[in-house]
Amino acid sequence: MVRQGKAAWLAHDLTHRGGTAWALYLPRRFDLWHSFLDCLAFAFFGALGERLLIGQVLFVYQQWWTSYDAFVAYFVTWVILHYLRYRVFFRDERASPRLGEGPIANPVPA
To answer: How large is the angle between the packed helices 67-83 and 32-55, nearest 10 degrees?
Structure first.
């Protein structure tokens, strides 16, 4: 058994919980507006976090990379994650009816 240090275990635990929370707040069916705002928020705060680290001289970009490039990279990364979530891993959920639709929507005859 490989022993991990406390920092590695904490990083693994935080990313696992963060990924789980992200997956739980996503709607079951794809919603373009929700996905766009989600990617925009993560890109903004990711680039902002990097900018704050640069301001504290805890982080340095190499050569031509800027905060704008970081924003685009974060945005594209989250677009890929949304694509994987909705088109690859849970493609069968797209066919499921929305809440209030389908044969079980009104089980009691009117």
So the answer is: 150
